[in-house]
Amino acid sequence: MSKFQPVRGMRDFLAEEAKTMRYIEQTTREIAELYGYQEIITPVVESYDLLAAKAGEEMRHRMYAFEDLGGRKVALRAEFTPSIARLVATTLKRASKPLKLFSTGSLYRYDEPQYGRFREFWQANYELIGSTKPEADAEILALSYDLKEKLGLRNCYFKIGHVGILRGILSQENIVEEQQNRIMQLLDKKQWDDALSVLQELDASQKCIKTMKNIFEIRGKNVSNVIKRAKEMLKGYETAVAAIENLREIIDLTHEGGAKIELLAEMGFARGLEYYTGMIFEPYVPDFEIALGGGGRYDKLVELFGGEPTPAVGVAHGMDRISLAMMEKQKINVLTSERKRVIVIPIEEKLRAKALELSRVLRKAGILVEVEVMGHTVSKALENASKRGFTNAVIVGAKELKKDKVVLRDMEKREQKTVEIKHLSKEISKD
Q1: Of 115, 54, 90, which is closest to residue 289 (Cα–Cα)?
Q2: Residue span of the structural domain in which 138 resides
Q3: E strands in 241-311
Q4: Which residue of 70, 164, 234, 246 has the fewest C-beta atoms within 10 A of its own C-beta?
Q5: Nearest partner of 149 among 138, 140, 139, 157, judged by Cα
């Protein structure tokens, strides 16, 4: 066994996997164009301080951080949003709003490698910047729904909540932001009992502890019922109630706007990143417990990086996880193609240049063409072409060339005929 293997948590993508990933990437780009999001490219390496701000303790601990040769502390990007916020606070600070930005690429976190979790992974990121309106949140939800639908994912549902519900309760109890973040980290990991223990350590009121415990249990797909129960539970917590109302308005706008997303409303839902200020959500498919992405509203991050107060909402879709869900869980095959694949086989060495010339002519006609380059006999070349899935073979022989013809073979039917070179592309393209 070779000592040279991929670094732990990194992967090689073979042809089938790479093609699926590129298909997903292209689909995310098409959705961006349909919704008016402009693609930007940001550096893989950023200032550690930029990436660490509001990232959450867990994320900070998992960053690939190092000191460069200039003595600066930098890190490989672990997500896109800080880079986008930096751009908005600096280069794009005078740009007209809303800003609608799309980016895609690789990210890096030193997580424990496991199914659906890698140290190098890919995301497609959409950010809508400049609007406080619930219709902006609704657009991000609808965009995410349309992406999953266009990719062919079945029975997709979104877990949805609102950070303002939990922070509204905790702020009214005078629990400082640092401790709130600690509690949010625990809730992100579904460690509800540990979160309640922290509240007891902080001498939170019994009302607060009881309310939080009850809120953790309020979840369901009957969204209107969940919201109604939560509002009754939160009487006296005005900020939290306002957050629920905001969430209700976003959901109503999304559904009334035509995106019939199946939702799982969860009032105790939190995400690990500290910069969220409003609605948060994660897409899922059945029998796949890992979120396919995540996003939400963050209204204070641009200001944190020196920009003007700038509201924003966004989402990152995990392309690796979407690929797993498509290929392994739902058996969605994106590789089937009706395009013809042709191999050009010269019978003898002196006809190699002619084979290359014919291949160029066919490519210009939009046909996928390879030339036999292994020096095989015709029979061996045809056997190999059949194994590799070619639909047709063009056999170039001296006898036929004298009449400006070649032999065209249908690999599936195992039938062949002689055709004029000037009609070759047309004959290949026939059904």
Answers
A1: 115
A2: 15-329
A3: 262-266, 279-284, 293-297
A4: 70
A5: 157
Query: Is 3 part of any domain?
Result: no
Q: Name the token pair of 54.
A: 């509001």
Which of 302, 329, 356 is the last residue in one of the domains? 329
Asked if 164 and 59 sit in the same domain, the reply is: yes
Rounded CA-CA distance 431/39 in Å is 38
The per-residue pLDDT for 165 is: 95
For residue 14, give Cα distances in angstroms to 70, 123, 297, 368: 37, 19, 36, 20
Give burial (CB, 10 Å; 0-12/13-18/19+) of 372.
buried
- CA-to-CA distance for 100 and 37, rounded, in angstroms? 5
Nearest Cα neighbor of 335 from 25, 122, 12, 23 is 23
Residue 431 reports pLDDT greater than 60: no
* Total length of the chain: 431
Tens of pLDDT, residues 390-418: 999 999 999 999 999 999 999 999 999 99
- Is the predicted pLDDT of residue 337 greater than 70, yes or no? no
Do 315 and 395 reside in the same domain of the chain?
Answer: no
**Mean pLDDT of the 305-309 span:** 92
Report the b/e string of 67-89 with b at 16+ CB within 10 A.
eeeeeeebbbbbbbbbbbbbbbb
pLDDT at residue 212 is higher than 70 = yes
Reply yes or no on whether the pLDDT at 336 is more than 70: no
Task: Give 23-39 as a DSSP string.
Answer: HHHHHHHHHHHHHTPEE
* 159 and 245 together in one domain: yes
Work out the average pLDDT over 19-28: 95
Residues 36 and 100 in one domain: yes
408: in domain:
yes
Residues 309 and 376 in one domain: no
d(CA 226, CA 55): 30
pLDDT in tens, 90-108: 999 999 999 999 999 999 9
What does the alpha-carbon distance between residue 158 and residue 22 come to, in Å, rounded to a whole number? 24
Domain assignment present for residue 41? The answer is yes
